[in-house]
Amino acid sequence: MRDGIREGILSAVTELELLVRPIREKDEYELGQIRALLEGDGMRVVDLDRTIARLAAEVRADSRLDLADAAIVATALATRCDAIVGNDARCAERVRYVPYVFLDALVQGRE
């Protein structure tokens, strides 16, 4: 991403999820690391607008994903992402609309 070949796209919901723990624990170092990632070259945070909200409602109705995961999937669909990268086993099992790269499986070599 830093070399400009690919762009990382994050839902504003993902930003919210990433920030909760370091804010709660007052971990300034981790907060700085997350902010640097979110504001870094090749990264774009996409706001949750009405189009994405409506798409998320359709995803949620069809897949029974929780609200946050449905919003993340809807953001991926709306921005035409190649894949979602995450570490949520339940989400990985339920997402059918966009390829889901499950990090634990990738690290363990069982994509």
Considering the chains and any ligands shown, give keywords for the structure.
single chain; 6 helices; two-stranded parallel ribbon; 111 residues; Rossmann fold; globular; 55% helix; alpha/beta; 13% strand
A few lines on this structure:
By secondary structure, this protein is an alpha/beta fold. The chain is built from six helices and four strands, in the order E-H-H-E-H-H-E-H-E-H. Strand 3 (84-86), helix 5 and strand 4 form a beta-alpha-beta unit.
Describe it:
The chain has 111 residues and is α/β, with parallel strands linked by helices. The protein has a domain of 75 residues: Rossmann fold (3-Layer(aba) Sandwich). It is 55% helix and 13% strand. It has a two-stranded parallel sheet. It has a two-stranded parallel sheet with strand order 3-4. The longest helix has 14 residues.
Count of helical regions: 6
Architecture of one domain, CATH level 2? 3-Layer(aba) Sandwich
Uncertain stretches? none
CATH homology superfamily name of one domain: 5'-nuclease
Strand order of the largest sheet: 1-2
Q: Which secondary-structure class do the elements indicate?
A: alpha/beta
Give the N-to-C terminal Cα separation. Answer: 22 Å
Strand percentage: 5-15%
CA radius of gyration is: 14 Å
Strands, count: 4
The proportion of residues forming helix, as a percent range, comes to: 40-55%
Q: What sequence of helices (H) and strands (E) makes up the elements? A: EHHEHHEHEH
Cα shape? globular
The average pLDDT value, as a whole number, equals 91
According to CATH, what is the class of one domain? Alpha Beta
User: What is CATH's topology name of one domain?
Assistant: Rossmann fold
The profile of the biggest β sheet is: 2 strands, parallel
